[in-house]
Amino acid sequence: MVKGPLHHPAVRGRVVAKDVAVEKNEGRLMFGGMARWDGLDLFGPNYTSIAYRRKGEIHVKVEPSALRKPTNPGLQRVSRWPIVRSFFLWGRVFAQVFGSIWSLLFFAGTLAVLWLFVRLMQLGSGAGTLGGFFAFFAEFPILPILLLFFAAMKFTPIGRYHGAEHKAVAAYETYGEVTLQNARESSRIHPRCGTNILLYIMLAALLDPLIGWWGYAILQFILISEAWFIFGQTRPSIVVGNFLQRYLTTTEPRRYQLEVAVEALNRLLQAEEEREVDQAAVRLKARY
After folding, report:
1. Domain range for residue 29?
2. In the β-sheet with 47-54, what is the strand arrangement from edge to edge?
3. For 217-276, how does the pLDDT look when each residue is reduced to its tens digit (9 = 90+)?
4. Dihedral sign, CA of 189, 194, 195, 200?
5. In a domain? residue 198
6. What domain count does the chain have?
7. 188 with 245: CB under 8 angstroms?
8. Fewer Cβ close by (within 10 Å): the C or N end of the chain?
9. For the CA atoms of the chain, what is the radius of gyration?
């Protein structure tokens, strides 16, 4: 694990991005991320950076990514087929969740809370005048769960780190480099934010008690992701997603949270660029 302040010699405040991407967005690398209570994870084409702050120091660990996309041309084509692409998407999501012990514990805790909540609502459904109220939430447990999720995102450091993650990535995509000033001036609303899929999760969950078929519990994952692939980049979907980000899933980060995101992305950029330089050197040696 590497730790150090923003003036770490390996970073020197910023890393200028080079057009050496394996995945490109207007000549630049594509990054994703996931906010946590005490930091964030950033995902590049080949590496992952895990960053947090303890006792005033920024700690960053960069390691090979477990979320690499297929490189075989045939497999790449297959991974873009309808339905098949959903399995690849959820496979990457679960690999991301189970790749961290804290993410795994959070996921397991969420499932436990959801089960307990539904059970309590079912038990209370016969409790006199409030029975109908409890029965309603037993049928639609997604509603209070989403309320708790949005409250956690909005009023805890998770939402601020989520906003910091967006700002750092937006600074790179806009300016080609990541500095504290560039990140501060960038938007915390990002069109590729994974929480935009919440719209389709909510719709699928609301249909669950109306369908009443056990197989729907599995089928809805495919419906959610296919709807995301088809409608995710349409204007109505983006408008709803931006609304969710602005008011519910991100908060304007403070300086110390933004510093963590900036250093995490700079270290990740450095690893991705060094890998491309090393591969170029190998190719050059083999050629001559």
Report:
1. 2-93+100-188+250-287
2. 2-3, 57-64, 47-54, 39-43, 32-35
3. 889 999 999 999 999 989 999 999 999 999 999 999 999 999 999 999 999 999 999 988
4. positive
5. no
6. 1
7. yes
8. C
9. 21
